Amino acid sequence: QVHLVESGGGSVQTGGSLRLSCEASGRILSSYVLSWFRQAPGKEREFVAGFSSNYNSEYYPDSVKGRFTISSDNAKNTVYLQMNSLKPEDTAVYFCALNPGSFVSYYTNAYTYWGQGTQVTVSS
User: Fold this and answer.
1) Across 40-84, where does the E strand assignment appear?
2) Most CB contacts within 10 A, which of 17, 64, 71, 107?
3) What CA–CA distance (Å, rounded) separates 121 from 101?
4) Positive or negative CA dihedral for 96, 37, 116, 121?
């Protein structure tokens, strides 16, 4: 069993930055994928960043590429999402999700473990 806890959400103005953290605990295998998703009111949950520990690689959709950066601190079992140049359309609840394996999926049903979410609000 793996437990994920997000933190770092908040309210910022357009153009601002936030760094989200996702701390993992429990039985974490050496090969895993940890991704960030977000869900705005009335919309489906969407992929915003993913990290494969096996390939040490990062993945982003076009909507956040160049603005968001995912990184990990293995010593702390924590993955971060640095979000810069934030826009009002980035407003959502942000979730981290983990799955054992190597391949980053953009689909929510590929992930076994989820955090509780943290709210990010960007005002214009």
Assistant:
1) 46-52, 57-59, 68-73, 78-83
2) 64
3) 32
4) positive
Distance CA 39, CA 41 (A): 7
**Residues whose CB falls within 8 Å of the CB of residue 22, separated by 6 or more in sequence, listed in order:** 4, 5, 6, 34, 36, 78, 79, 80, 81, 96, 115
Of 110, 89, 90, whose CA–CA distance to 101 is shortest? Answer: 110
For 103-118, what is each residue's pLDDT tens digit? Answer: 999 999 999 999 999 9
Could you give the CA distance from residue 23 to residue 3 in angstroms, rounded to a whole number? 8
pLDDT tens-digit readout, 50-83: 999 888 899 999 999 999 999 988 888 899 999 9
Which 3 state secondary structure label does DSSP give 89? Answer: helix
Whole-number mean pLDDT of the chain? 94
How far is the CA of 63 from the CAs of 12, 25, 55, 71, in angstroms? Answer: 19, 30, 23, 18
Q: For 8-62, how does the pLDDT look when each residue is reduced to its tens digit (9 = 90+)?
A: 999 999 999 999 999 999 887 778 899 999 999 999 999 999 999 888 899 999 9
